[in-house]
Protein backbone atom coordinates (compact mmCIF):
# COMPACT_ATOMS: atom_id res chain seq x y z
CA UNK A 1 0.00 0.00 0.00
CA UNK A 2 1.42 3.36 -0.99
CA UNK A 3 2.41 5.66 1.84
CA UNK A 4 1.78 8.78 -0.28
CA UNK A 5 -1.56 10.57 -0.40
CA UNK A 6 -2.55 13.20 -2.92
CA UNK A 7 -3.03 16.54 -1.11
CA UNK A 8 -6.43 18.12 -1.36
CA UNK A 9 -6.76 21.11 -3.71
CA UNK A 10 -7.25 24.63 -2.39
CA UNK A 11 -10.65 26.00 -3.38
CA UNK A 12 -10.55 29.53 -2.00
CA UNK A 13 -7.94 32.10 -0.98
CA UNK A 14 -8.56 35.65 0.18
CA UNK A 15 -7.11 38.69 1.91
CA UNK A 16 -9.12 40.63 4.49
CA UNK A 17 -8.43 44.07 5.97
CA UNK A 18 -8.95 44.28 9.73
CA UNK A 19 -9.57 48.03 9.96
CA UNK A 20 -12.92 47.88 8.14
CA UNK A 21 -13.37 44.09 8.11
CA UNK A 22 -13.46 44.05 4.31
CA UNK A 23 -12.33 41.33 1.89
CA UNK A 24 -10.04 43.22 -0.48
CA UNK A 25 -9.15 40.30 -2.79
CA UNK A 26 -10.24 36.71 -3.29
CA UNK A 27 -10.01 33.77 -5.66
CA UNK A 28 -12.45 30.85 -5.87
CA UNK A 29 -12.12 27.59 -7.79
CA UNK A 30 -15.13 27.56 -10.12
CA UNK A 31 -15.19 23.75 -10.11
CA UNK A 32 -16.36 23.38 -6.51
CA UNK A 33 -20.09 23.24 -5.67
CA UNK A 34 -21.91 26.53 -5.17
CA UNK A 35 -22.77 25.79 -1.55
CA UNK A 36 -19.14 25.01 -0.73
CA UNK A 37 -18.12 28.24 -2.47
CA UNK A 38 -20.55 30.22 -0.33
CA UNK A 39 -19.43 28.37 2.81
CA UNK A 40 -15.82 29.42 2.15
CA UNK A 41 -16.67 33.10 1.58
CA UNK A 42 -19.05 33.20 4.54
CA UNK A 43 -16.51 31.46 6.77
CA UNK A 44 -13.86 34.09 6.06
CA UNK A 45 -16.41 36.90 6.47
CA UNK A 46 -17.26 35.46 9.89
CA UNK A 47 -13.57 35.49 10.86
CA UNK A 48 -13.33 39.17 9.85
CA UNK A 49 -16.42 40.07 11.83
CA UNK A 50 -15.69 38.14 15.02
CA UNK A 51 -11.97 37.46 15.41
CA UNK A 52 -10.20 40.75 14.71
CA UNK A 53 -10.08 41.47 18.45
CA UNK A 54 -8.40 38.10 19.08
CA UNK A 55 -5.70 38.49 16.43
CA UNK A 56 -2.05 39.22 17.08
CA UNK A 57 1.05 39.07 14.87
CA UNK A 58 1.31 35.55 13.48
CA UNK A 59 -2.08 34.48 14.88
CA UNK A 60 -3.52 31.32 13.31
CA UNK A 61 -6.87 29.58 13.35
CA UNK A 62 -8.51 26.57 11.72
CA UNK A 63 -12.27 26.49 11.10
CA UNK A 64 -14.35 23.54 9.90
CA UNK A 65 -16.89 25.02 7.49
CA UNK A 66 -20.52 23.97 7.98
CA UNK A 67 -19.87 20.79 10.05
CA UNK A 68 -23.35 19.50 9.19
CA UNK A 69 -22.49 19.62 5.47
CA UNK A 70 -20.40 16.72 4.20
CA UNK A 71 -17.03 17.79 2.75
CA UNK A 72 -17.69 21.53 3.06
CA UNK A 73 -13.98 22.16 3.54
CA UNK A 74 -11.60 23.55 6.16
CA UNK A 75 -10.58 27.20 6.45
CA UNK A 76 -7.05 28.14 7.50
CA UNK A 77 -6.44 31.76 8.44
CA UNK A 78 -3.43 33.69 9.68
CA UNK A 79 -2.70 37.31 10.62
CA UNK A 80 0.24 39.33 9.33
CA UNK A 81 2.70 41.38 11.38
CA UNK A 82 0.90 44.31 12.99
CA UNK A 83 -1.57 42.80 12.63
CA UNK A 84 -3.45 44.55 9.81
CA UNK A 85 -4.57 41.84 7.41
CA UNK A 86 -5.95 38.29 7.47
CA UNK A 87 -4.88 35.75 4.85
CA UNK A 88 -7.03 32.66 4.38
CA UNK A 89 -7.08 29.45 2.36
CA UNK A 90 -9.86 26.86 2.21
CA UNK A 91 -9.22 23.18 1.53
CA UNK A 92 -11.52 22.16 -1.31
CA UNK A 93 -14.24 19.55 -0.61
CA UNK A 94 -12.84 16.05 -0.92
CA UNK A 95 -11.84 12.97 1.00
CA UNK A 96 -8.35 14.17 1.97
CA UNK A 97 -7.72 17.23 4.11
CA UNK A 98 -5.05 19.78 3.22
CA UNK A 99 -2.23 19.27 5.77
CA UNK A 100 -1.90 22.13 8.21
CA UNK A 101 1.83 22.64 7.58
CA UNK A 102 1.14 22.94 3.86
CA UNK A 103 -1.68 25.40 4.49
CA UNK A 104 0.52 27.65 6.65
CA UNK A 105 3.28 27.44 4.03
CA UNK A 106 0.79 28.45 1.34
CA UNK A 107 -0.41 31.40 3.41
CA UNK A 108 3.15 32.61 4.09
CA UNK A 109 3.89 32.57 0.37
CA UNK A 110 0.54 34.19 -0.38
CA UNK A 111 1.28 37.04 2.03
CA UNK A 112 4.74 37.62 0.58
CA UNK A 113 3.53 37.71 -3.00
CA UNK A 114 0.50 39.89 -2.26
CA UNK A 115 2.59 42.45 -0.36
CA UNK A 116 5.19 42.45 -3.14
CA UNK A 117 2.58 42.93 -5.86
CA UNK A 118 0.07 45.29 -4.23
CA UNK A 119 1.42 46.26 -0.80
CA UNK A 120 1.06 50.00 -1.45
CA UNK A 121 -2.62 49.60 -2.41
CA UNK A 122 -3.86 47.32 0.38
CA UNK A 123 -4.73 49.97 2.98
CA UNK A 124 -6.65 52.32 0.69
CA UNK A 125 -8.36 50.11 -1.88
CA UNK A 126 -12.11 49.50 -1.97
CA UNK A 127 -13.58 46.17 -0.83
CA UNK A 128 -12.77 43.55 -3.48
CA UNK A 129 -10.61 46.23 -5.11
CA UNK A 130 -7.56 44.01 -5.68
CA UNK A 131 -9.26 40.81 -6.83
CA UNK A 132 -8.59 41.47 -10.51
CA UNK A 133 -4.98 42.56 -9.97
CA UNK A 134 -4.16 39.53 -7.80
CA UNK A 135 -6.07 36.87 -9.75
CA UNK A 136 -2.96 35.55 -11.49
CA UNK A 137 -0.97 35.53 -8.25
CA UNK A 138 -3.71 33.69 -6.37
CA UNK A 139 -4.11 31.11 -9.14
CA UNK A 140 -0.38 30.40 -9.30
CA UNK A 141 -0.11 29.91 -5.53
CA UNK A 142 -3.19 27.66 -5.45
CA UNK A 143 -1.98 25.50 -8.33
CA UNK A 144 1.50 25.19 -6.85
CA UNK A 145 0.31 24.00 -3.46
CA UNK A 146 -2.55 21.85 -4.74
CA UNK A 147 -0.10 19.73 -6.73
CA UNK A 148 2.13 18.76 -3.76
CA UNK A 149 2.09 15.15 -2.53
CA UNK A 150 2.22 14.50 1.19
CA UNK A 151 3.59 11.56 3.13
CA UNK A 152 0.85 9.78 5.11
CA UNK A 153 2.92 9.90 8.30
CA UNK A 154 3.49 13.62 7.79
CA UNK A 155 -0.24 14.06 7.41
CA UNK A 156 -0.79 12.58 10.87
CA UNK A 157 1.88 14.89 12.32
CA UNK A 158 0.21 17.82 10.57
CA UNK A 159 -3.10 16.97 12.19
CA UNK A 160 -1.39 16.82 15.59
CA UNK A 161 0.23 20.21 14.90
CA UNK A 162 -3.14 21.67 13.94
CA UNK A 163 -4.72 20.46 17.19
CA UNK A 164 -1.75 21.80 19.16
CA UNK A 165 -2.16 25.18 17.49
CA UNK A 166 -5.83 25.31 18.40
CA UNK A 167 -5.00 24.36 22.01
CA UNK A 168 -2.36 27.10 22.18
CA UNK A 169 -4.91 29.66 20.96
CA UNK A 170 -7.39 28.40 23.57
CA UNK A 171 -4.78 28.70 26.34
CA UNK A 172 -3.92 32.22 25.15
CA UNK A 173 -7.61 33.15 25.23
CA UNK A 174 -7.96 31.72 28.75
CA UNK A 175 -4.95 33.79 29.85
CA UNK A 176 -6.50 36.89 28.32
CA UNK A 177 -9.77 36.15 30.13
CA UNK A 178 -7.84 35.62 33.40
CA UNK A 179 -6.15 38.99 32.93
CA UNK A 180 -9.56 40.56 32.36
CA UNK A 181 -10.87 38.99 35.58
CA UNK A 182 -7.86 40.34 37.48
CA UNK A 183 -8.51 43.79 36.06
CA UNK A 184 -12.14 43.55 37.17
CA UNK A 185 -11.04 42.48 40.63
CA UNK A 186 -8.67 45.45 40.76
CA UNK A 187 -11.47 47.79 39.70
CA UNK A 188 -13.76 46.24 42.32
CA UNK A 189 -11.11 46.86 44.99
CA UNK A 190 -10.76 50.47 43.83
CA UNK A 191 -14.54 50.91 43.96
CA UNK A 192 -14.66 49.40 47.46
CA UNK A 193 -11.92 51.80 48.57
CA UNK A 194 -13.80 54.72 47.03
CA UNK A 195 -16.98 53.61 48.82
CA UNK A 196 -15.12 53.49 52.16
CA UNK A 197 -13.73 56.98 51.56
CA UNK A 198 -17.18 58.26 50.66
CA UNK A 199 -18.66 56.70 53.79
CA UNK A 200 -15.95 58.27 55.97
CA UNK A 201 -16.48 61.64 54.31
CA UNK A 202 -20.22 61.31 54.94
CA UNK A 203 -19.60 60.62 58.64
CA UNK A 204 -17.28 63.63 58.91
CA UNK A 205 -19.79 65.83 57.12
CA UNK A 206 -22.59 64.71 59.45
CA UNK A 207 -20.44 65.52 62.49
CA UNK A 208 -19.64 68.97 61.11
CA UNK A 209 -23.35 69.62 60.51
CA UNK A 210 -24.18 68.50 64.05
CA UNK A 211 -21.50 70.81 65.49
CA UNK A 212 -22.81 73.70 63.43
CA UNK A 213 -26.36 73.04 64.63
CA UNK A 214 -25.11 72.91 68.24
CA UNK A 215 -23.29 76.23 67.82
CA UNK A 216 -26.38 77.83 66.30
CA UNK A 217 -28.51 76.57 69.20
CA UNK A 218 -25.99 77.94 71.75
CA UNK A 219 -25.87 81.30 70.01
CA UNK A 220 -29.66 81.42 69.80
CA UNK A 221 -29.89 80.53 73.52
CA UNK A 222 -27.45 83.30 74.45
CA UNK A 223 -29.39 85.81 72.33
CA UNK A 224 -32.72 84.86 73.95
CA UNK A 225 -31.14 84.92 77.43
CA UNK A 226 -29.67 88.36 76.75
CA UNK A 227 -33.03 89.71 75.58
CA UNK A 228 -34.81 88.31 78.63
CA UNK A 229 -32.21 89.80 80.96
CA UNK A 230 -32.49 93.14 79.19
CA UNK A 231 -36.27 93.14 79.76
CA UNK A 232 -36.47 91.64 83.22
CA UNK A 233 -33.56 93.27 85.05
CA UNK A 234 -35.11 96.81 84.96
CA UNK A 235 -38.39 95.43 86.30
CA UNK A 236 -36.72 94.07 89.43
CA UNK A 237 -34.47 97.05 90.03
Mind describing the biggest β-sheet?
A: 5 strands, antiparallel
Radius of gyration: 35 Å
What class do helices, strands and sheet pairing give?
alpha+beta
SSE string: EEEHEEEHHEH
Helix content: 55-70%
Q: Approximately what portion of the residues adopt beta-strand conformation?
A: 15-25%
Key structural traits:
237 residues, rod-shaped, alpha+beta, 7 strands
Report on the structure:
- The protein contains four helices and seven strands.
- It is α+β, with helices and mostly antiparallel strands.
- Strands 3-2-6-5-4 form a five-stranded antiparallel β-sheet, sandwiched between helices. Strands 1-7 form a two-stranded antiparallel sheet.
- β2 and β3 form a beta hairpin.
- The N terminus is likely disordered.
